[in-house]
Specification:
- The protein is α/β, with parallel strands linked by helices and 482 residues long.
- The chain has two domains: 258 residues, Type I PLP-dependent aspartate aminotransferase-like (Major domain) (Aspartate Aminotransferase, domain 2, 3-Layer(aba) Sandwich), CATH 3.40.640; 125 residues, Aspartate Aminotransferase, domain 1 (Alpha-Beta Complex), CATH 3.90.1150.
- The protein has 16 helices and twelve strands.
- The chain has a seven-stranded mixed beta sheet, with helices on both faces.
- Strand 8 and strand 9 form a beta hairpin.
- It is globular and about 80 Å long.
- The site of pyridoxal-5'-phosphate (PLP) has 13 residues, from helix 7.
Length: 482
């Protein structure tokens, strides 16, 4: 049943019937342009093809079908109304050259959506201006750090370092390094927050920025964050807020109010674009006034006389970082999401996200080690270290067990600073029945680990592939059909 289209092929079987032509054939093509033999394409009926792909699509694991508690990823349910609106012809069929060809009067509605989204994002984050063009979280980070570099260069500051706590997302140090800064990693204290004394020691006049993932990848909110901002500013270092997981604080706290200077958001995590599989994203970047002049070009403005138009770029702009406007239809989805939820709805999002994660933390912490004795934000982290030591059952074994019960595995072995970590993000969109079911399966796995650890060698039992050789799969991957 799982054979490929090539294996299903049957000589002479047709997919479609094309009516006999009533016009003469085109003159023969040049001999040397013709194939000497037929392309080796599978020959199948339309029905064969439809069944084949429908069957494959049913094998997909997706958020529309099952619970997906992958930490640091926000795999949540996104209401379908965003998809409907994003697919409206007036949005989906826009051509970016309407703008470059001086036909801006034809796209006033589109520009107004961009401006409204910019304004909403400023209001949500407490920033003074936004650019919508970056196409992913990491892309936004790169832009943010490039603007920080431009700021210091203009002031004649001699800066070499970017400070990154060891609990930040991996893209943070990678970004700083790509933009040619040396990275100083500051370790976490026993409570999971960046060690304040170690931070003070690392701080100097040569530090350009401090990049913080908030909440950090342990799902914790650092209560000393205001103090960290003040210390950094006293050295004229800028504060970067990685806001990819904004659903933890949405409507409750504004990073601009605490003292952050730059923020990126992942619209494809918090604001209703489904993600995974490398689909289109958007990582808008917000800045405070002192960085506004460095924003990429294409800032939308409005006045009564001209309507919506693009500002002439500031002379200090760092230039273009995306063709046209980034992923416009992702931006539209985010705007629709915000408008349908409103202020109260967005507060509700973060309250539910945090409540759900804490519910899991409370339900599981008597069964498996929770390394930090505090409330969490939108995700919680456990450690299978003891299970591994005492019973030889590792985080990966628990993850494989869950697959048999219609559950996606949580994130395992990340964050790196927790041994045998299992990181769970239920998100705001799951109800208590689903979360209880998941917790029960986790508890079942833990009990089984204690009573019969050998059993784990067999999980998953119900999937097409059970336990591949992970090293071989990574090092010598062969996905060619023969
Ligand atoms: C997902 C994520 C990123 C990276 O976003 P991409 O869109 O995948 O580039 C950065 N930081 C944090 C905290 C994230 O969760």
């Amino acid at each position: 049943m799982s054979s490929t289209l090539f294996e299903k092929s049957h000589k002479g079987r047709d997919g479609i019937n094309i009516p006999k032509q009533s016009v003469p054939d085109a003159p023969n093509l040049d001999e040397n342009l013709l194939r000497s033999e037929k392309a080796e394409l599978p020959e199948l009926s339309e029905f064969d093809v439809v069944r084949h792909f429908t069957r494959l699509s049913n094998k997909n694991f997706s958020i529309d079908a099952n619970f997906y508690p992958l930490g640091s990823c926000t795999m949540k349910y996104n209401p379908k109304i965003q998809e409907r609106v994003g697919a409206l012809a007036g949005f989906a069929n826009l051509h970016p050259h309407h703008i470059t060809n001086n036909q801006i009067h034809l796209v006033q509605g589109a520009l107004s959506t961009l401006k409204t989204l910019e304004n909403n994002l400023c209001e949500i984050t407490g920033m003074d201006a936004f650019t919508l063009t970056p196409q992913a979280g990491a892309h936004g980070e790169m832009l943010g750090v490039m603007m920080i570099g431009a700021y210091h260069k203009k002031k004649g500051n001699n800066k070499r370092y970017v400070i990154v706590p060891d609990s930040s997302h991996g893209t943070n140090p990678a970004t700083a390094a790509m933009v040619d800064y040396d990275v100083i990693t500051v370790k976490s204290g026993p409570n999971g927050d960046m060690d304040l004394e170690a931070f003070k020691e690392a701080m100097s006049d040569e530090v350009a920025a401090v990049m913080m993932t908030v909440p950090n990848t342990l799902g914790l909110f650092n209560p000393q964050i205001k103090e960290i901002c003040d210390i950094a500013h006293s050295y004229d270092a800028l504060m970067y807020y990685d806001g990819a997981n904004m659903n933890a604080i949405l409507g409750v706290l504004r990073p601009g109010d605490i003292g952050f200077d730059v923020i990126h958001l992942n619209l494809h995590k918090t604001f209703a674009t489904p993600h995974g599989g490398g689909g289109p994203g958007a990582g808008p970047v917000g800045v405070v006034k002192k960085l506004q002049e460095f924003l990429p070009d294409l800032q939308v403005s409005f006045n009564k006389k001209d309507g919506y138009f693009f500002n002439k770029p500031h002379e200090n702009t760092i230039g273009k970082i995306s063709p046209f406007f980034g992923n416009y239809l992702v931006l539209i989805r985010a705007l629709v999401y915000m408008q349908t939820l409103g202020r109260e709805g967005m507060i509700n999002v973060s309250q539910k996200a945090v409540l759900n994660a804490n519910y899991i933390l409370a339900k599981l912490k008597d069964h498996i080690k929770a390394p930090f004795d505090s409330l969490c934000m939108h995700e919680c982290v456990f450690s299978a270290e003891d299970l591994a030591k005492e019973h030889g059952v590792r985080a990966m074994d628990i993850a494989k067990y869950l697959l048999d019960f219609g559950l996606h595995a949580p994130t395992v072995y990340f964050p790196l600073i927790v041994k045998e970590s299992i990181m769970i993000e239920p998100t705001e969109t799951e109800n208590i029945d689903t979360i209880d079911y998941f917790c029960q399966k986790m508890i079942d796995a833990i009990e089984l680990a204690k009573s019969n650890p050998e059993a784990f060698k067999e999980f998953p039992k119900t999937l097409p592939i059970s336990r591949p050789d992970e090293t071989k799969a990574a090092r010598s991957l062969n996905i060619r059909w023969q």
